[in-house]
Amino acid sequence: MTNHYSEIPEGSLYNQGDRIGLLKKVLSELGNQDRQFKIIHVCGTNGKGSTATMIAKILAELGDKVGLFMSPVVGPRNSDICINFESISNREVRNIEHRVNNLPALKSGDKRLSPFEMRVIVAILYFASGGVDFAVLECGLGGELDATNAVFTTMYSIFTPISLDHLGILGDTLAEIATAKAKIIRPSNTTIVAPSEPGVVQSIIRKEALDKGSTLIMADSIAVTKNGNKVSATFGDTNYEFKFGLSGNYQQTNLRTVLAWFMNFIDRHSISQGPQTLLSKALGDLMIPGRFEEINNTPKIIVDGAHNPDGISSFKETVSNEFITHELIIVVGFLKDKNYVKSMAELATLNNPRFVITQPINDNRALAVGTLAETATNLGMKIAGKESNPRHAIDKAISLAEANTTIFCVGSFYLINPIRDYILNK
């Protein structure tokens, strides 16, 4: 099975010359096909994939034809580009890439697209040829220079939680990162902001929205309470109850962002079924690969692609609340350009877990087992094994599991993907 997964798009040419100018020229030579559908643009640090997927599910349940582009993606390579959750075929990818590579814009001056830029262009052309009504585009790094920002305009700019990540690329402070990401806001569109964002993030996005004449909606006004697989959501004086399939406390934050968008959307579009029924159908049985996903029952194995301190903090909160009586074994590995020390410090505060230390499958960016094990030792973490191969690491964890053990695999998507494939195909 061929996989495609990345946290920073591999071979990225981000911020190397006028990439957006080149991409706009490419889109122009292709007939500006990004103008054939309405675009919902999702940007942030954590929760982009879950938020984008939920929005696409709701639109599909409304009867619309929906394109979804995701980065990073967990699972088969082409699941990052799909229409109504059917992936693009290898043949279609090859045909579109051949067409793009022969454009005049890429024939002069030895110009080329990065792999991520090419995937964005392939997605846009595929969505146009498929006649989608809406396209939900998840940013890569996010911000003004992100390849997804080459589109002509967007209907919505949706911001999931923004935190310190990709330091030195988007900026060195939260304010700088928020400023870069806020540049995806387009004139006269609608901007949705995740709840409980830091004041500096809110003020930067608010100013950008005001400058662009964008309608600003804060998701703080929506309250959500989850009980089992049911959610109670309050919008002002209105309360909705519906099924919600996603695990992980952090998904409630993403859901509040989605519901802020949904309430605005149905104010502008008539719908044929009640909101509660619609939301239950769209989100009741939803499962997103790699996002607190249970991939095995005996022993219970859950994979989660939390790979930065904020993501790990949210992961820890869910584990602490929902697995109090479980013995915990955590298979963990990070990329070396992440703040792995702070992430491990978060994991160290869990209630007496055992850790199997491993490393992601990435020749250039994987943090070595020895380095992560040294960090774990310095933090007083209980190390149950050290394996350089993620498959050997999960096998080690399984060999240690007892009846009351839950195994978690957390960290880089380069770690989650090979473990997930190994267990599901075993």
Briefly summarize what is shown:
The chain is of the alpha/beta class.
Task: Explain the overall architecture.
The chain folds into two domains: 19-220 and 246-271, 3-Layer(aba) Sandwich (UDP-N-acetylmuramoyl-L-alanine:D-glutamate ligase), CATH 3.40.1190.10; 293-425, Mur ligase, C-terminal domain (Protein-Tyrosine Phosphatase, Chain A). Mean pLDDT is 91; it is low at 1-11. α3 packs across α5 and α10 (309-322) packs parallel to α11. The strands form three sheets. An eight-stranded mixed sheet has the order 4-3-2-5-1-6-7-8, sandwiched between helices. It has a six-stranded mixed sheet with strand order 12-13-17-14-15-16, with helices on both faces. It is 38% helix and 19% strand. The chain has 426 residues and is α/β, with parallel strands linked by helices. It is built from 14 helices and 17 strands. It has helices at 19-29, 48-61, 90-101, 104-107, 115-129, 174-182, 199-212, 250-268, 275-283, 309-322, 340-347, 369-378, 390-400, 413-425; strands at residues 38-43, 66-69, 81-83, 86-87, 134-138, 156-159, 190-193, 215-218, 222-227, 230-235, 238-243, 293-296, 300-304, 327-333, 354-357, 382-386, 405-411.
Task: Give keywords.
426 residues; alpha/beta; UDP-N-acetylmuramoyl-L-alanine:D-glutamate ligase; Protein-Tyrosine Phosphatase, Chain A; six-stranded mixed β-sheet
Provide the structure class.
Answer: alpha/beta
CATH class assignment of the largest domain: Alpha Beta
What is the second-level CATH architecture of the largest domain?
Answer: 3-Layer(aba) Sandwich
CATH topology of the largest domain: UDP-N-acetylmuramoyl-L-alanine:D-glutamate ligase
- Cα gyration radius (Å): 21 Å
